[in-house]
Amino acid sequence: MMWYMKYLALASILFNVQATPNFLHDGSNLVCVSDDDADFVLKKGVLSDTSDTKSITLKSCGITRVKCEAFHGLPAVKSLVLSENRIHKLDPCMLNGLDQLTHLDISFNRIEEIPTGFFDAVDDIEELYLQGNKLRTIKTGVFDKLIKLTHLNLAYNELRGVELKSHIFDNTKQLKYLNLTKNYFLEAPDNLLASLPSLLVLNLDKCVLTEVPSFAMRDNLKTLKNLSLTTNFISNLDNPTTFVNMDDLEVLDLNGNSIESVHENVFAPLKKVKTIYLRRNRLIKIPDKLFQNLPKLVNVDLAFNAIEKIQVTPFKNSPMKNLNLSGNRLTYLPENFCQQLINEGGRLKKFLFSHNPWQCGCLRDIIEEAKSLGLVYNRDKYSGNDAVCVSGTQFGCVRN
């Protein structure tokens, strides 16, 4: 029995020894090259001191914790990547000594909280990646020292809008790119983004939204160029003032919602918009003025809705180049539809129209027109191998 107990004790010691990953210096870069999946605590002395190291990449190293002064003696580091580890707690002094740090990536760990003062020693950070953690809230003041921050990714956390305070971004006035995808922002404060006068890109995909949130419609967001609201539960765009403050918006992505109705003037303020995505919604009808008089609009995606009829009128005086009507319930189009679009100011180059229950005579007209105008279309869908239209009693196209 004694030998067995000694064996167990020895095995316990062996299996609890923490492995140390291997590190490789590649010029001014320090990289983790270990495939060892054992848990590892990064502490002072593990990384070799050098004033030449400018970048540290410790991705997928099995790190569970980074202790204070772990980066002691590395004063020139500008980029630190700790992504895809198992860090669950951030020591407040973890970043001490990284005075020149501008890029920090601690994404895809298990972090539940950012302690107050965590970024105080690294106030030159410009890019911060925190996506893929377990953050439920952000304490007021956490980002206050990051006055140079331009990129912030908080996607794929467990943030709840109702638990967020309205002043968490008060000092990050240089912020240009903000990703909040896959969080719960249904009840976020109306003035959550009120202190961001320079924002260019805002991602709110998969945020359980039932409407375009008021915090994304404020007058300080006139600089916004790209707004993404995909895969939410937005049911309508009936308020014509929804986008009234978005003077510079170029890309609006509303794919994958539940939109059934839109006000005919909802897009009217978007005089710089180039692309509008409305794919995979529940639209049946397109209002007559919806895309009219938008001088920069070149891409419209209405694929996979429930549109039964469509006219040229909604696109009048817009220089549209690419139109996608695939996957709707269209059986016909107005005669010479594409040519009419061009006559009304369009610059049509690409027209997608597959997966509709076309009358065969109508589909034939559409394909012939697309060919005659030299348009790019779903040519591969009409090879003769699949059923692509519904035959009627009449040979020609019946429009009603």
UniProtKB/TrEMBL annotation:
Gene3D superfamilies: Ribonuclease Inhibitor (3.80.10.10)
Entry keyword annotation includes Signal: yes
Pfam families found in the cross-reference section: LRR_1, LRR_8
Gene Ontology cellular-component annotations: membrane
UniProt keywords, alphabetically: Leucine-rich repeat, Repeat, Signal
Signal peptide: 1-19
UniProt name for this protein: Uncharacterized protein
UniProt organism field: Loxostege sticticalis
